[in-house]
């Protein structure tokens, strides 16, 4: 159990966001289909779904930017509406598309967005200084956004969304198109915000990020809640076990199509095998959960004379979970 989860269990299990039976229609299209969501205070919560799954609609309903047809939304145990200004001051949003003013400097941008929540200039000055330090932009405070690299621009986007020190923060694809160093800095910053007490709702197409920082993850599609749990709990829900990859130029031991096809048919007939594919150089075998899948596959390959080069076996990932539950890869 992570330090965050221990802190949540020990201190509070109350909800930061609770959505019940949410329905949103656009004409004949059902964007949210009795959708449920319960985000605990103090956690980093991953919200995953392919484009068109309803993620953005759900978030906009939670923020009272959209009306909905049925259901309830509560934030910190209060109903939220367009005029719930006190409640909205406790919320920060870091959008996927960078939303800053090119005419303003880094410091002026942060100050402007902070002023939407904090009118007192003296208090705001201290918050802006903290935000500059938090995202590592103090040396760039006089720069205009057009002079920043993609990674630094993403950091500015984050600073503008969190400078007022919100209790609940929505991060929508915050690491899109940034270099690895900036990505690590952003993820570490999100974890630091969480450690300081913020609840985080995080969306991303990068499964490894979600697995790295999120305490719990909800997968949705077609406006519906499909699965919820930790990364390990989600992986345990699917049939897919290990994925075996074998480099070989002579599958089946025969240098013609008949031998290759015979070997593939034998592999697919194994009880442990869900699928087997060969591109002429690499064999990929997707297995069900089992104790000796690798041994079964290798024994069969050895028996039909396949010469084996590089071999690898990996356990299921969140991508496998997503693929099995939604029938599609998490797409951009």
Please give a quick description of this structure:
The chain has twelve helices and 14 strands. The protein is α/β, with parallel strands linked by helices. The protein has two domains: 3-236, 3-Layer(aba) Sandwich (Rossmann fold), CATH 3.40.50; 240-315, Alpha-Beta Plaits (2-Layer Sandwich), CATH 3.30.70.100.
Number of domains: 2
* Helix run count: 12
Which consecutive residue ranges, at least 5 long each, have pLDDT under 50? 6-12
Determine the mean pLDDT. 90
Helix content: 25-40%
Structure summary, number of beta strands:
14
Write the CATH architecture name of the largest domain: 3-Layer(aba) Sandwich
Order of helices and strands: HEEEHEEHEHHHEHEHEEHEHEEHEH
Strand portion, in percent? Answer: 25-35%
Cα-atom radius of gyration: 24 Å
CATH superfamily of the largest domain: P-loop containing nucleotide triphosphate hydrolases
- CATH domain topology of the largest domain: Rossmann fold
End-to-end distance: 32 Å
Q: What does the overall shape look like?
A: elongated
Give the oligomer, counting copies of the same chain as homo and different chains as hetero.
single chain
Which strand order does the major sheet show? Answer: 6-7-8-3-9-10
InterPro entries: AAA+_ATPase (IPR003593), ABC_transporter-like_ATP-bd (IPR003439), DrrA1/2-like_C (IPR025302), P-loop_NTPase (IPR027417)
Keywords: ATP-binding, Nucleotide-binding, Transport
Protein name: ABC transporter ATP-binding protein
GO molecular function: ATP binding; ATP hydrolysis activity
């Amino acid at each position: 159990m992570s330090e965050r989860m221990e802190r949540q269990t020990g201190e509070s299990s109350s909800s930061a966001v609770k959505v019940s039976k949410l329905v949103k229609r656009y004409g004949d299209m059902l964007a949210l289909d009795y959708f449920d969501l319960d985000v605990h205070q103090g956690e980093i919560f991953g919200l995953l779904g392919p484009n068109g799954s309803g993620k953005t609609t759900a978030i906009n309903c939670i923020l009272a930017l959209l009306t909905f047809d049925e259901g309830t939304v509560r934030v910190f145990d209060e109903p939220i509406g367009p005029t719930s200004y006190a409640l909205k001051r406790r919320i920060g949003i870091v959008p996927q598309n960078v939303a800053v003013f090119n005419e303003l400097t880094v410091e002026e941008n942060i100050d402007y967005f902070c002023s939407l929540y904090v009118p007192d200039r003296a208090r705001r000055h201290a918050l802006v200084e903290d935000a500059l330090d938090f995202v590592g932009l103090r040396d760039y405070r006089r720069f205009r956004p057009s002079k920043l690299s993609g990674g630094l621009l993403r950091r500015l986007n984050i600073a503008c969304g969190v400078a007022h020190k919100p209790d609940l923060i929505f991060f929508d694809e915050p690491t899109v198109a940034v270099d690895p160093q900036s990505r690590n800095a952003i993820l570490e910053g999100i974890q630091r915000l969480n450690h300081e007490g913020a609840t985080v709702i995080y969306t991303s197409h990068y499964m490894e990020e979600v697995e790295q920082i999120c305490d719990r993850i909800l997968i949705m599609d077609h406006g519906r809640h499909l699965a919820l749990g930790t990364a390990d709990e989600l992986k345990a829900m699917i049939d897919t076990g290990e994925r075996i990859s074998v480099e070989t130029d002579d599958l089946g031991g025969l240098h013609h199509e008949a031998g290759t096809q015979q070997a593939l048919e034998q592999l697919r007939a194994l009880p442990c095998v869900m699928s087997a594919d060969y591109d002429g150089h690499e064999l990929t075998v997707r297995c069900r959960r089992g104790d000796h899948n690798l041994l079964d596959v290798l024994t069969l390959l050895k028996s039909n004379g396949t010469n084996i080069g590089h071999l690898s076996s990996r356990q299921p990932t969140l991508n496998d979970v997503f693929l099995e539950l939604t029938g599609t890869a998490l797409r951009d």
